[in-house]
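As a next step, the fold was encoded as tokens, giving this record:
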Amino acid sequence: MQQPLIEYQLDLGDISTRALELEGDGPPLLLLHGFADSADTWRSVLARLARHGRRVLAVDLPGFGAATRLQRDEAVLPQLDRFVAAAVTHLEHECGAGVVVSGNSLGGCVALRAAANPALPIAAIVPIGPAGFDHPVWFSAIEAQPVLRHLLAAPVRLPEIVVRAAVGEGFRQLAFAHPRAAPADVIAAFSEHHRTTRDIRRYLAIGRRMLPELIDPFDLAAIRVPIMLIWGDHDRMVTHRGSRHLLAAHPQLRYELLLDVGHCPQLEVPDRIVALLQDFGAGAGTGGAVKRRAKAG
């Protein structure tokens, strides 16, 4: 039986966030989005997991989507850490089982940081193109986008339709291996939270604050849970060469390098991501030999 997707406001600690939830069974899965994105990035994956009757929670991270704004007088990553810890604890309390945490980009970074906390009931992690390895070129790529630069340079206030169209085009070019093939509804969902140039400037300010924090954000040796690392080989934002750091620290992790896929595999190849999450969540392939490459289809 397919589970209905429930959307509601959820309070986690001192943060109010928007949650997308499937009240299914199996190992509970927490999904974390990337920088300037929202829980909507997981809708295609959620629709497929609903057919499997899986228990899943996707949330807007603090500062993004419809969640509470970040505190300006505190570093960004520690605020995200507390929020994710609260989400993991909440999901474990409801399900009575360890949580599988998966995140894309910034969400993958936060998932890795959460896994290094032995106090959290995390059963496994699935970082997807995680930020935080090597030089953080992703932010330079965002700021250099011609469409966004022209948008921010406009001398007058622009209509929402113009702002969202420009943001959507920038996202299309950066996040996808084949930009013109990006579905229109996916682009619209991303731009939903970028309605004014003020929104864009706020997100860019968060990115600049985080840059120093992302130079060396991990304690990889402290991670004691199974890891499945997923990366697109055409990721323009966060190069898959960063995987060598995680492989050096955890040579027995499972590594899926998806061919002809960009920065957001959950959007480009949701069927493949769901198959991997289901397989890994069931306990298959959580250790052993590293798998270097995999076809996306």
About this structure: Residues 5-136+214-281 form a domain with the Rossmann fold fold (CATH 3.40.50.1820).
